[in-house]
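Reopening: C-alpha cells for the magnesium ion complex, inputs below.
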Amino acid sequence: MSFPSFFALIPAAGVGARMGSTTPKQYASLAGKPMPQHVIDTFASAPEIEHTYIVVSPADGYMDALHVPVRCTVLRCGGDTRAASVTNGLAAIAPQVAPDDWVLVHDAARPGLTADLIGKLIAFAKDDPVGGLLALPVVDTIKRSNGHSHVADTVSREHLWAAQTPQMFRHGALLSALRDATHKGYGVTDEASAMEAAGLQPKLIEGSPRNFKVTLPEDLPIAELYLRGSP
Ligand code: CTP
Ligand code: MG
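Re-run output (same inputs, fresh job):
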C-alpha cells in the first residue's frame, strides 16, 4: 500500500426534495442502474482508490438492492444535512484511515463521473498542500436578482467557477474543518467551503459538464444520455 492512500466517501443520504419523486432521487435508475451504483462502479474501476465508503441514512431501504463490490463498504450514518453525512462518514472511517490520507468526497447524485476525472483530480491535487476539487469555469452571464424576479446587477464571471465533486482533502484536516464550520454555524454545502472557512485555499481543477449534479426531473434524460454514451 502506498502512502498516503486515496479513499472515496460518497454521501447518499439525501431525500431529493427538488426532484419531487416518491423515492429518494439517488435511487432513480439511469442507463439500467441506480445513480449510486454508477458512482460505486466508477470508483471501483479507478486504480488509485484504496477503498470506497458510501454513507446512507440509517433508515435507508434501497441500498440492499445495490451490488457492493469487495473494496466498498456501506455506512448507515447519514445526517440531516450533507455536511453532517460527510462528517459522520469521516468519523466512522477514522480507524481505517490515517489523518494524512486523502479522501475524495463525491455526491451520489453525480453519476457522470469517470475514472479519468478521478485520475485527473488526484494528479493535479496530490502535491497541493491543501487539496482540491473539480469545478467548471462559469460560461453564462451572471445576474443577481433583487429577490423579486428582477435584476439587481450583473456579476462579472471573471474568476468564477461552479464547484463539482469529487473534492479531495486530507482526512484529518477535512474532519476538523467540517466540525469547526458546523460548530460556528456556517451552512457549508461542500467540503471546500469548510476548508476555506479554516483559512485555506483549495486548488481548482477543471471537471466536465457530464459530471453535473442530477437535481431536477428534467436532469434525468440528460444524465441518461451521458451514461449511455460512455463506453
Ligand atoms: N446528501 C446526504 N445527506 C443529506 C443531504 C444530502 O448524504 N442529509 C447527499 C445526497 O444524497 C447527494 C449529495 O449529498 O448525493 C448532494 O446533495 P443534493 O444534490 O442536495 O441532494 P438532496 O439533498 O438529496 O436533494 P435536495 O437538496 O433536492 O433535497
Ligand atoms: Mg440537498
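Residues 14, 82 surround magnesium ion (ligand 2) (CB under 6 Å). The radius of gyration is 17 Å. Marking as resolved unless the reporter disagrees.
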